[in-house]
Specification:
Blueprint lengths: L2 H11 L7 H6 L4 E5 L2 E4 L4 E4 L2 H4 L8 H11 L13 H13 L4 E7 L2 H18 L7 E5 L8 H5 L4 H6 L8 E3 L12 H19 L3 E7 L2 E2 L5 E2 L4 H11 L3 E5 L23 E4 L11 E6 H7 L19 H16 L2 H20 L4 E7 L2 E6 L15 H11 L2 E2 L2 E2 L2 E4 L7 H22 L2
Parallel strand pairs: 3-15, 5-6, 5-7, 7-10, 10-11
Antiparallel strand pairs: 1-2, 2-3, 4-12, 8-9, 11-12, 13-14, 14-17, 16-17
The structure holds pyridoxal-5'-phosphate.
Main location: cytoplasm
Cofactor: pyridoxal 5'-phosphate
Function: Catalyzes the transfer of the alpha-amino group from S-adenosyl-L-methionine (SAM) to 7-keto-8-aminopelargonic acid (KAPA) to form 7,8-diaminopelargonic acid (DAPA). It is the only aminotransferase known to utilize SAM as an amino donor.
């Protein structure tokens, strides 16, 4: 099929996620292939993939070891979900993940996307309290602008405004607490923000712990809600409060897991031991849809009983523990070991921090936030007052379109530009991406800034 036909059909029949299709009609993009950190469209244009294909591609595209692991698995079996049966790659992967995860976590429940891994954690937490005889503990606490996925359950334990406006009556209520957002806080002292936020959270726990099942929280860095980094010590403080008030701590590592923040899991920055941890995206190196919800042994044991007691966890998807996905994930984790990738990410993170200082000086860059190779650049109309650009100008979106013209793909979150390159990007490739990032921001803000 030629380019024109593909384009025509895509406009006639496709409906793309999180996309206003009128934008796609104006600026369509159809990817045909990828190699390393490069993507190529059907017209032969090449782009640097500066957001790891929605934050998941770890080693670049077409990583030989993962390609081969998938082919090898294809020769055995591609998929079987027989309820009550395990499969070989999923067992091997469970052992690998548990060896890497915080020691409190001993069990792996598979699924196929980040949203389902969180959805599962909510259902588990809810049922856990029933199983241990405290059914009144039903509510969830979440942070302002938290994002845990787009299913009905995960939208409910998240706090993205647009979801709550559009899908309001579909959702159940959660208790939303302010995010310890240093840049947008009246005090820009990280320590003050941390202490105040923990005090507020402590008050809520004190007054409502009898009805709270768990707290869902993105690990150290909040992604889709604006690329916000918690002050030092905040997540540790949340953990202590959860323990004090008997509330399950559900840490979402869907975006931050697998080296993204310069540690295998972001909880390691503060030695936090969650009761549950959700994983997806980088788990298969960005290859296949596989996800996991990890739990403590205590949670698992609350479900372990004679069948007649009704404590079974009632959940499972057709593609649970898919063999190809598990084989890809195993190969992915072997590459982490072989290439000492977490260490590499840590080193690149330091280098990147220095480079981003130059971007932070640009006239319309209000704030640069980063943890490891997870970065957000907030564009503002006025650097002094932090006044935002009018939303209808879509400055973030325009900047990413400009970057696309210059040969790099990334994504805006409002006026925050996401910069999340694959961990495998070389220093040279990172430098190339930063040049385009800078040019894109300069060119767009010159046009709209005055
Ligand atoms: N949790 C977090 C922290 C995320 O960033 C995302 C996706 O961006 C999700 C959950 C949902 O993951 P998925 O898109 O795989 O459903």
């Amino acid at each position: 099929m030629d380019q024109q036909q593909l384009l025509h059909i895509s406009k006639q029949h496709m409906w793309l996620p999180f996309t206003q299709m009128s934008d796609y009609e104006k600026d369509p993009l159809i990817i045909e292939s990828g190699e390393g950190v490069h993507l190529k469209d059907i017209e032969g244009n090449e782009y640097l993939d500066a957001y790891s294909s929605l934050w998941l591609n770890v080693h670049g595209h077409r990583k030989k070891e993962i390609d081969e692991a998938i082919k090898k698995q294809l020769d055995k079996i591609s998929h079987s979900t027989l309820l009550g049966a395990a499969n070989v790659p999923s067992i091997l992967l469970a052992k690998k993940i548990i060896d890497l995860a915080p020691e409190r976590l001993t069990r792996v429940f598979y699924s196929d996307s980040g949203a389902t891994s969180v959805e599962i954690s909510i259902k588990m937490a809810y049922q856990y309290w029933q199983n241990v005889g405290q059914p009144h503990k039903k509510k969830f606490v979440t942070l302002r602008n938290g994002y845990h996925g787009d299913t009905v359950g995960t939208m409910s334990v998240g706090s993205i405004d647009i979801y709550h406006r559009v899908y309001n009556s579909l959702l159940f209520d959660s208790i939303v607490v302010p995010y310890p957002n240093v840049y947008h806080h009246p005090s820009d002292d990280e320590k003050v923000v941390c202490e105040q936020s923990l005090t507020e959270l402590g008050e809520i726990f004190k007054n409502h712990h009898d009805e709270i099942a768990g707290m869902t929280v993105e690990s150290i860095m909040q992604g889709a809600g604006g690329m916000n980094v918690m002050p030092n010590g905040y997540l540790k403080g949340v953990e202590q409060l959860c323990r004090k008030y008997n509330i399950l701590l559900i840490v979402d590592e869907v975006a931050t897991g697998f080296g993204r923040t310069g540690k295998m899991f972001a909880v390691e920055h503060e030695n936090v031991q969650p009761d549950m941890m959700t994983l997806a995206k980088g788990i298969s190196g960005g290859y296949l849809p596989i996800a996991a919800t990890l739990t403590s042994e205590e949670i698992y044991q609350a479900f372990y009983a004679d069948f007649k007691e009704g404590k079974t966890f009632y959940h499972g998807h057709s593609y649970t523990g898919n063999q190809l996905g598990c084989a890809a994930a195993l190969a992915n984790l072997e590459i982490f070991e072989k290439e000492n990738l977490v260490k590499q990410a840590e080193e690149k993170s330091e280098w990147l921090a220095n480079q981003l200082q130059e971007i932070a000086k640009l006239e319309h860059v209000g704030d640069v936030r980063k943890l490891g190779l997870m970065c957000g650049i907030e564009l503002v109309k006025n650097k002094e007052t932090k006044e935002a650009f009018p939303w209808e100008e879509r400055v973030g979106y325009q900047a990413t379109l400009k970057m696309r013209e210059l040969g790099m793909l990334t994504r805006p979150l409002g006026d925050v530009i996401v910069f999340m390159p694959p961990l495998s990007a070389t220093y040279e490739e990172l430098a190339e991406m930063l040049t385009i990032l800078r040019k894109g921001i300069e060119q767009v803000t010159e046009d709209v800034g005055e």
